[in-house]
Amino acid sequence: MSRVTGLPRGIAWDPVDGADDYYVHVDFSDSPDFLVDVDSGEHMHLAVVTEPQFLFHSIPGTDFNGADFAIVAHANQDGVDVYSDPASPTGFQDVPLAFTPLESPANGRLLTA
Predict the structure, then answer these.
(1) Annotated domain spans of the chain
(2) pTM of the entire predicted model
(3) In whole angstroms, what is the distance from residue 95 CA to residue 93 CA?
(4) Contact indicator for 25, 46 with CB cutoff of 8 Å
(5) Residue 48, C-beta contacts closer than 8 angstroms, at least 6 positions apart
(6) Cα(11)–Cα(3) distance, rounded to whole angstroms?
(7) DSSP character at residue 99
C-alpha cells in the first residue's frame, strides 16, 4: 500500500479589505495575454467565491494541473461595482475616483491535503 500526501486541493490568497467576493479566472491554455484579457473583461471568470480560497473539487471533472489563475476582488459600493485590476497600467492608478478602489489580492498559495 502507498500513500501520497500534499497534493494541491485548491488555491488561497490574503483577504482584501472591503471585498464582497472574489472572481476566479483560470487559463488552461497558457495565454501570454491572460491578465490583459481579464483586465479588459474579455476573459470570463470560472467561479465566484466569498472566502479567499478556491477549492478545485468545486468544479468537478476539471484538471487544474498547469493552469494559470487570476483573482479579482469585487465589491458593491452604494450601487457601484468596484473591481481590483490584475493588469492596471500605472497611469490609471492615480486617477481620483468617487469610490474606494480595491487592492489586488496578494500572496497566492496552494492549499494541500
Answers:
(1) 9-105
(2) 0.85
(3) 6
(4) yes
(5) 21, 22, 23, 24, 74
(6) 22
(7) S
Contact 9, 57 (CB under 8 A): yes
Cβ–Cβ under 8 Å, residues 39 and 53: no
DSSP 8-state secondary structure symbol assigned to residue 84: -
Q: Given a cut of 80, is residue 91 above it in pLDDT?
A: no
- 24's CB contacts (< 8 A; 6+ apart) are 45, 46, 47, 48, 49, 54, 69, 71
Q: In whole angstroms, what is the distance from residue 39 CA to residue 84 CA?
A: 9
Q: What is the DSSP letter of 105?
A: P
Q: Quick one: cell of 75? A: 465589491
53 in Cβ contact with 12 (< 8 Å): yes
Confidence band of 17 (pLDDT split at 50, 70, 90): very high
The whole-number pLDDT of residue 85 equals 77
* Residue percentage of the chain with pLDDT more than 90: 59
